[in-house]
Design the sequence.
């Protein structure tokens, strides 16, 4: 009887931890190794290929429908950091990626349309790569319902991977990694 209670308690604890922690869908690339190359197009049909960005520091910010809500929590502090050190910071390319793997093909046109047009300031919405097949998630690892960030240095090495809601500690770790990449070896 007591053994059954212990097993039931452990099962409930495991279920609680599983439901509180977003699932990591793919194992992903390893920090310190060459970043996997990919090519995607944005909502304006402009193509981006990672290997063509060699020489630049690239920060990829990727989210699914729920995770995209937190992209700004990651991007704003990075932009503020870069603006404050604009004279000494090299060019950093921020690449937004929408993980749209679960969208049925028949809805691609409608979904693409949601990313086009003007924002609330009357400006064209910023480019976001549309990943219909989940190639970035599969290559780099991906946590559902969170923003996923991948930092690639100018030599094409993956230097930092994180996921979350862009809370202070998460963003601070990204900025520290970015500072290390900027300072170089």
Sequence:
């Amino acid at each position: 009887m007591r053994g059954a209670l212990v097993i039931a308690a452990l099962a409930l604890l495991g279920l609680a931890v599983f439901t509180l922690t977003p699932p990591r869908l793919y194992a992903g690339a390893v920090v310190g190794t060459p970043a996997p190359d990919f090519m995607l197009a944005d909502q304006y049909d402009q193509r981006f290929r990672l290997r063509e960005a060699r020489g630049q520091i690239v920060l990829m910010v990727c989210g699914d429908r729920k995770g995209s809500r937190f992209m700004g929590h990651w991007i704003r502090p990075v932009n503020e950091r870069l603006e404050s050190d604009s004279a000494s910071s090299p060019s950093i390319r921020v690449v937004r990626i929408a993980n749209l793997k679960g969208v049925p093909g028949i809805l691609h046109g409608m979904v693409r349309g949601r990313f086009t047009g003007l924002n609330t300031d009357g400006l064209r919405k910023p480019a976001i790569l549309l990943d219909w097949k989940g190639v970035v998630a599969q290559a780099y690892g991906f946590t559902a319902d969170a923003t996923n960030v991948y930092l690639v240095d100018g030599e094409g090495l993956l230097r930092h991977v994180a996921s979350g809601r862009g809370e202070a500690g998460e963003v601070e770790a990204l900025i520290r990694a970015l500072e290390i990449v900027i300072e170089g070896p």
User: Anything to note?
Assistant: The chain is about 35% helix and 25% strand. Residues 24-183 form a domain with the Glutaredoxin fold (CATH 3.40.30.10). The first helix runs from residue 2 to 20.
